[in-house]
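Weekly modeling sync, notes
Attendees: S.R. (lead), two postdocs, one rotation student

Agenda item 3: backlog of single-chain predictions. S.R. asked that every request posted to the team notebook include the full sequence so nobody has to chase files. The rotation student volunteered to paste the first one in as an example of the format we agreed on. Action items at the bottom.

Example entry:
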Amino acid sequence: MERREFLHTALGTGFMAAAGVGTTMQPQDTKPAGADFYVWRQYIVRTGTQPQRLGEFLKNAAIPALNRLGHKPIGVFEVVAGVPSPSIFVLTPSSSLADVAAIEPGLEQDAEFMKAADAYANAPATDPFYVRQELSLLAAFPTVPRILVPAATATNGPRLFELRIYESHNERAHRMKMRMFTEMGEVDIFRRVGLTPVFFARTLIGTRMPNLMYMLVHENLAAREKSWAAFGGDPEWKKLRSTPGYSDPEIVSNITTIFLRPASYSQI
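Predicted structure, as returned to the notebook:
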């Protein structure tokens, strides 16, 4: 496999052309100053050797190389519930679209990465490391401009991650749901009742458009149920959700919830 083809396939920066890198769009056109971009990647794998082999590539080759390029922390997550196919998810932050686009040439010049990724790069079609990848490009909310690493990560403490994807029936409804988080105080309510954010972002490029997604972290399922119960009974939330035009039936067409656990080498 040619080096450039391998890098393009391995870390998927080709979709950046659709986001306007190298054309006319600048980072400030898509997010507020100081807020990060994220690449959210799903590797769909088969049971057997693929999860272990892919994990070794991520742990020993991809994550160290991305860290050397300044992309940190990198989150790697395994599915607990909510996705029908075995999958590994990877969250990669960048400070700008230009930094996302620079991943490919940066890795191409990283001899250590190319050596560590040799088995991945040269896997035959009859024995691949995964079935397929699906990518989304996200822009962080101004209220949560960067990834918030859970305190339990430092000690490898218990962490149950909850990813929620909110789809809307059109762009106007999508902007209204975003406004609830960014301007009307919904994130503050989350924090007050014990729903701890990891990130909030809107999807610039991906599937199920238009949508926003966010990730929360809980100690366990019981803690999750307790926090969501407190949220549902919170007076400020009851007031917010009753705002004319802002009820879920009016602006949210579908909600997907996925429960994840961190891989042993995840930095989140």
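Discussion: group reviewed the output briefly. The chain has twelve helices and eight strands.
Action items: rotation student to repeat for the remaining queue; S.R. to check formatting next week.
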